[in-house]
Amino acid sequence: MKKAPDFKLQDQNSDYKSLKDYTGKWIVIYFYPRDNTPGCTKEACSFRDARSYIEETTGAAVIGISRDSVQSHQKFSEKHNLNFTILSDPDHSTIEAYGAWKPKKFLGKEIMGVCRNTYLIDPKGNIVKEYLGVNPITHVKQITDDLKQLTN
Fold it and tell me: Could you state, in order of their start, the residue ranges of all structural domains in the chain?
């Protein structure tokens, strides 16, 4: 098992959050490319809809991270009634630390960008499961199933 990289980033309310704030809890950290794009919106709304179930059955916190600004996150959160923390990582240092910053093809060119990856972190701060290049529509079911298994 690998230790989850620590971070200190601002959320959609301009409050700073770090990994240490969640010590003793399971955490779902998901990285996504951009606020208000179709896939990212579907994924965020899926986490929103499943959040109370995830929290009640496993005690896990859900955290989304992208390069978007705090202001963008605030608007995204309000527009879609998101009920979990989204963190702004404009210099992509945390995204890189988790291995979610990779070359991608865009209009025939290779550019660096955020991969749609998710990490399950146990109460001791270890990454116990990685999901790389996930499907934003079906992914949340995988997370809830795995969390139920890991926390029971």
Answer: 24-151
Contact indicator for 130, 119 with CB cutoff of 8 Å: yes
Decide: 120 and 129 in contact? Cβ < 8 Å.
yes
pLDDT tens, position by position, 75-97: 999 999 999 999 999 999 999 99
Which amino acid is residue 133, in one-letter code? G
| Residue at token pair 């990685």 | 130
24-151, CATH topology level:
Glutaredoxin (3.40.30)
Q: Is residue 115 annotated as a catalytic residue, yes or no?
A: no
Residues 94, 72: Cα–Cα separation, whole Å = 18
The catalytic position among 4, 40, 120, 127 is 40
Model pLDDT for residues 39-60, shown as the tens digit of each residue: 899 999 999 999 999 988 899 9
**pTM higher than 0.85:** yes
